[in-house]
Design a protein that fits this description.
Blueprint (H helix, E strand, L loop, with lengths): L1 E6 H11 L3 H8 L5 E6 L5 E7 L3 H19 L4
Parallel strand pairs: 1-2
Antiparallel strand pairs: 2-3
């Protein structure tokens, strides 16, 4: 499995500037092979990782699950 390291600060700043979602970027990266995307901080420490699926259908399932979990975690804050 191919591993891709991404500097989290730069990545999320680019998403903000281009007004695009990470899911749109992930969709463009799909080529039929799973990839491990490793998000690192400025000190090169691993923050989190994500296994990019080999197909668009699985990516859509992941996006929906992420959105659900994110909403559930934010609910108590409202």
């Amino acid at each position: 499995m191919k591993k891709i390291e991404i500097k989290a600060d730069d990545f999320f700043e680019l998403l903000r500037l281009k007004d695009v979602s990470m899911w749109e970027i992930f969709l463009q990266m799909i080529d039929g092979e799973e990839k491990e995307i490793i998000f690192i901080d400025r000190e090169e420490k691993i923050l989190f990782n994500y296994i990019l699926p080999a197909d668009k259908e699985k990516l859509e399932e992941d996006r929906k699950e992420f959105s659900k979990q994110f909403s559930e975690k934010l609910a108590p804050l409202n």
